Amino acid sequence: MENLKKSIDFAITSYCQAKCRSCIRTNKDTGEAEDWLTPRHQPYDLFEKYTAEIDKSTVSFVKFCGQTGDPMMHPQISNFVDHAFNFADDVQINTNGGLRSTDWYQEMAERYGKKLTITFGIDGIDAETNWKYRENVNFERAMENMKTYANSGGRTVWHFLVFDWNWHQIPNASLMSKEIGVDKIEFKLNTATYGLLNPKKNERVNELICRYNT
Q1: What b-and-e string marks burial along 95-116, b requiring 16 or more CB atoms within 10 Å of the CB?
Q2: Tens of pLDDT along 123-143?
Q3: pLDDT single digits (tens) 73-116
Q4: How far is it, in rounded angstroms, from Cα 9 to Cα 13?
Q5: Sign for the pseudo-dihedral over CA of 186, 190, 194, 195
């Protein structure tokens, strides 16, 4: 029987500028990093060393996401992406979008096109709404980075977590995604206690999610 390909998710940093209250790295009361967390970046040379022998034929895709940090915080993220393409044809990054400049996103889109997927976690169509969960993230920068990456030819996914305070924005977010030119918008219902949807709205919101997910 043919061997199944594997996907690999690398957590390359535990640094993040955001203070998302449901994130495991965040103290729910203060919004600061938990005391047990020691922010650190994974050394690039070790990543290069330990992935050098990976057979590309066994890998479906590589993702840079992680649980305690945003990969865009790593000062050598470009090197990680470049090297990942040595053992994968499909590379993905998950980010809150508010890090790095439009020049960086344009350069990466022009270098890799649709082979590099960047998923932007933006949970609102305005700064006030997005800040309710993505606290400390520059909304305007995040939207501009997403727009730049999409318009420069990179594969762009907008990941929109649905909370009790933003569910009504689903239709407008879908419209914005088309105007920006993202390849896909994903609405996903938040299941954490913080911002949990009122159960009375579940049916209506699930209908919206099914209708507007692309």
Answers
A1: bbbbbbebebbbebbebbeeeb
A2: 999 999 999 999 999 999 999
A3: 999 999 999 999 999 999 999 999 999 999 999 999 999 999 99
A4: 12
A5: positive
The CATH number of 6-212 is which of 3.40.50.620, 3.20.20.70, 3.40.50.11890, 1.10.3720.10?
3.20.20.70
Q: Is the pLDDT of residue 1 over 80?
A: no
Percent of all residues in the chain with a pLDDT value above 90, rounded to a whole number = 97
Residues 202, 190 contacting (CB under 8 angstroms): no
- Let me know: does 156 contact 97? Beta carbons within 8 Å: no
Q: What angle do CA 130, 131, 135 make, to 5 degrees?
A: 130
Nearest of 94, 160, 97, 98 to residue 129 by alpha carbon: 160
Q: Which residues pair with 188 in a beta bridge?
A: 161
> Which position has the token pair 């969960």?
133
